[in-house]
Amino acid sequence: MPSxxxxxxLLEDLIKKAKAxxxxxxxALMFRSVSVSHAQRLGKMEKLEREESNDLGLRVFIGKRNAxxxxxDASPAAIDELVERVVSMARVVPEDPYAGIAxxxxxxxxxxxLDIYDAVExxxxxxxxxxxxxxxxxxxxxxxxxxxxxxxxxxEASIALAASNGFSGSYNSSGHSISVSVLAxxxxxxxxxxxxxxxxxxxxxxxxxxxxxxxxxxxxxxxxPRKPDTLNGISVxxxxxxxxxxxxxxxxxxxxxxxxxxxxFLKESLNKKIFADGIxxxxxxxxxxxxxxxxxDGEGLGNKKQNIIEDGVLLTWLLSLSSARQLGLQSTGxxxxxxxxxxxxxxxxxxxxxxxxxxxxxxxxxKQGFFVTEMMGSSVNGLTGDYSRGAGGYWIxxxxxxxxxxxxxxxxxxxxxxxxxxPASDLVFRYGSNAPTIRIDGMTVAGN
Length: 448
Known about the structure:
Elements: H1 4-20, E1 25-41, E2 44-62, E3 65-71, H2 76-92, H3 124-139, E4 144-163, E5 168-184, E6 191-199, H4 208-221, E7 231-238, H5 240-253, H6 256-261, E8 281-283, E9 306-310, E10 313-314, H7 321-327, E11 335-336, E12 344-345, E13 350-352, H8 359-363, E14 368-380, E15 386-397, E16 400-413, H9 414-419, E17 421-423, E18 433-434, E19 438-446
Parallel strand pairs: 7-14, 13-18
Antiparallel strand pairs: 1-2, 1-4, 2-3, 4-5, 5-6, 7-19, 8-9, 8-13, 9-10, 11-12, 14-15, 15-16, 16-19, 17-19
Helix pairs in contact: 3-4
């Protein structure tokens, strides 16, 4: 990757030119990335691709007016044209009373070391071998009849941000992944499932063979599914690969723009209990080797680990500078942005803390329930919290997994679901957003 000093020098020069052209304030973002991916199906290569990108974004402010432009061309002539265009745009757009970069006293002055960059780039042969081993392990399991393909990928990115308030910061990140999907059964009775692993460091990936075997075993377990009856007051248990979606719906409802517009079902819930006692949900941008870790936010503000939910109580909105100003609050350091748009708030490494019961203990008293491993489609009303999603998984009878289920719909209201949620003890950090197995009582399952 290009050196961070080269990127910072380019951005600072860009800001100087913007100021000279008439901007009152400006910030600039450089995003460079390299990625390699290999995919195969039934042992035959489907792709081996390498992509490189260089994107530059400039945001300028003239009074309360602001504009953003981006370019992949960093030549002197292109930069001069970029500056001229964005300043001209900023002169004519409507005023935004909440626009503006951070004050000099708000910006981050020092950055934590997060260990989110693996400097070792895998060779093409190594990626090919990862995918090959993964698919072969899956196909070796009796009952697997076809493959949807296996893929292995690697990428690294360099992010640099500078602003006229004196902020200057940069960091590198990396990611490795392996995935496979396979089919079990024959003709009309075939069922598909998958598994994958993602990590900052290649050495932290789950072994390719284990991923393949896990995917195969999951596909076989799904054979001969039934469509459930329509029942009310059912306990629904979410597998960890789908349980974080519940937190996702909550996060969408507590972002500053949704609160400022009054379009969130949680708009009156700050500092109120919305989950049961003992539930804690944490956002940690400084998680060691975290998939979404970063040393500062998209506006150059410091960020930190913080409880979003503590003992069931909602402690904070998710705020960028603009949304914080709309609400008369301070930014929470959650701004995220690309090169072509304004910052908006989003979480980093979000997780729900583990509970005390094992998954087996969590379901042992359920006479009839639904263990969900797959979700599709979504009908979630952000204003009311009404929730309905397609789902597949397994039916629970008398505290045990009984048989596979498909073509089901689960429904409820998120306010009630949050209050009736119980987490298990099996929290593992596999994704950018993580939750253990969770149980939610009192839901509707629709089928036959």
